[in-house]
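Memo subject: From amino acid sequence to discrete backbone structure tokens
Action wanted: Derive the backbone structure tokens from the amino acid sequence.
How to read it: Take the token row as a discrete description of the fold.
Attached in line: The record itself begins immediately under this heading.
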Amino acid sequence: MKNFTKFLCISVLASVTVAAVAESYTTLGDGTNYTLQLLAETSGSGVSLESDGVYVLDGDITIEAGDSFTLDNGVTLKMGNNAQLTIAGEANFDCTDLTTITKNAETDEPKGFYINTELTDFTYKLTNIRFEYAGLRAFMTASMEMKNCQFVYNNGASSSSGALAINLSDGSYVISDCDFIENIVPAVGTGANVAVALTIENCLFRDNNTENRNKPQVNLTAGGNNDIVIKNSTFEGAQRDKVGGISVSNMMDIAGTNNVLIEGNTLTEHRYGITTLGALNVRIINNHMVNNNHETNAMNGGSGISIYDTNYAQDVYIEGNYIENSLWGITIIGGKNVNVGKTEVDKSASDYNPGRNVFVDNGNGGQLYDLYNNGTNTVYAQGNTWNVANQTAEEIETVITHKADNNALGEVIFMDESNGLESNLIDSYTFNSASKQLSGLNDCCVVRVYSLNGSLVNQVAVEGGVANLSELTQGVYIVRINNSSCIKVVI
């Protein structure tokens, strides 16, 4: 019996030792370029060939510095529970055909790929890879170019920050034409102390952070002296009450220019659309935001755009955005300089902003809130289309909250004091708002009048150099004088 027990213990230890070898494998760092095929032929690597073009990884592999890795094109890599491929050296993930990284067994939760390197002068290229249930974590100062990749159903085993988690400063990332769909965690996330040069362009984000934690689909930190750019992408929410669209913050007061550009994106059905926090230099331009109102308590959020900066260190330029059916259109808490439209200055001025933001049905509790200035600084918001029947000072005042409502708040200047004229630097034309006459048109026989959405409203004959616009109802119009000149008039 004692001998049997001793034999059993030895057998168990032997099996544990064999399993340990299979669970963790590190290459020698002798300059070898590894592929899945080579690893499958390497004893103890944990990689096996299941069938033609299908590999299985049951444990952890580290491609040591000095070695390199090339992902086999067009294959499927099935990863076991907690399995991870770590890259410490150079690697090539540039596939011409779709290559899939997924889980092995139905209950497995693999970590995925982990780039953990001290390389600085190298660019990791990832193309045509589908990360399914598995993710990618990058801890590096190198660069990355990712194109035509998919991240779906990520389980959060590698990181709670995101299906693509960025965890070290000074790296440079370009993500284009990629899809992030129904990941348990956010789509892309960085640490609060991580400054990264990051460009996201032409990507699709659909219902990420399905566990509904208090994080947006894309959750980034300021770039320091590097730029953050998010443009021409689609963000589709799933009406979750904790999940916003885009957030860029500087909670750790990272020094630098901290330039952020958020442009040309569509955001729908989130808790909020876009939020920025802390010392940043932000431009929010031509985004389309609808139904970002799924915060259950309006006092906790639900804005199309939210500017939060109680230290008054954030510069923000907001132009050409469409915001519909949020609990609040734009909310401003603090901010060093928030410019939502400044048309009263010359177009060559550094702070000129044509505005062109459009607000539709934003409000809560039976009250419309297009813009809420909850800070003490003055905010310019000229040249916009407000959610009122007539674009007059009296009516616009009803959808803006500022000093006129609470003397402790800063003022919002929303009417252009230049008598309703924006003339593309052509000084010869004059619009008299009292008589509704546009004069100085001696070289013109007819003017065309358009609404702000581009529809032709009227054509008015010019007599004696004057166009009489008195037939127009109250509103904001674009008057085209010739092929090169146009004027905005407020009637």
Remarks:
- The longest strand covers residues 90-103.
